[in-house]
Structure formats: C-alpha cells, structure tokens
Amino acid sequence: MFIQQERWRREAEERRRAQNLKDSRSQLFEIIEAWGVAVRIEGFFEDIERRSVDLGAEDRQAMLERLQRARALLGGVDALERFAKWKSADERQTLSDARA
Q: Are 99 and 91 in contact (CB under 8 A)?
C-alpha cells in the first residue's frame, strides 16, 4: 500500500512540475507577444510625434494632446515591469510546494 501511495505522490509531483513548466513558458510567450505589440504601438506614437512638427502650432498642440490621451488609454508598455512579474517553473514549483 505504501509503495502505491509513494508512486502516486511521485506521479502527481511530476504532473505539477510539467504543468509549472508549461505555464511558465506560456506566460513568457505572452510577455514577449505583448512586448512586440508595445514596440509597434510606441513606434506608431513616435511617428505621430515626429510628423506633428510639420503642423501649425495649434494643430500640433491638439495632436500632441490627442497622442497623450491615446498613450494614457493603452497604459504602460514597460517590458521590464512585465518580465519582473514572470514566474519561472522553479518559482512556480516553490509556490506549489508551499501550498501543499
């Protein structure tokens, strides 16, 4: 009976380890994808800012205010902040072990 229980425990631990690895990898890919989107968005905003120099003072001011609202709407695009929230498989395992 003890041998069977130990086998089940090891199998459950291995499933948790595999799930932690899968979840960690998935989260990292999501962060990378979000970073790619953020880079494109920031490039778009920078292009608007550069091109607004050619506008008259009033139009330029209106465009920059609009740009500020757009940036505020989308929130931060800080890759370091997102990466700092990522949990590696080992970190996930530690959390799983602490809960068990």
A: no
> What is the tally of helices (H) and strands (E) in the chain?
4, 0
Q: Band the pLDDT of 76: cuts 50, 70, 90.
A: low
Tokens (6 digits) for 11: 């199998």
Q: Which helix (H) or strand (E) holds 60?
A: helix 57-74
The dihedral sign for the CA sequence 47, 53, 56, 62: positive
pTM exceeds 0.90, yes or no: no
Provide the number of structural domains found in the chain.
Answer: 1
Write out pLDDT tens, residues 11-55: 999 999 999 999 999 999 999 998 898 889 889 999 999 999 999
Phi, then psi, of 65 in degrees rounded to 5? -65, -40
CB atoms closer than 10 angstroms to residue 95: 12
Range of the domain at 68: 2-99
Between CA 56 and CA 16 the distance in angstroms is 61
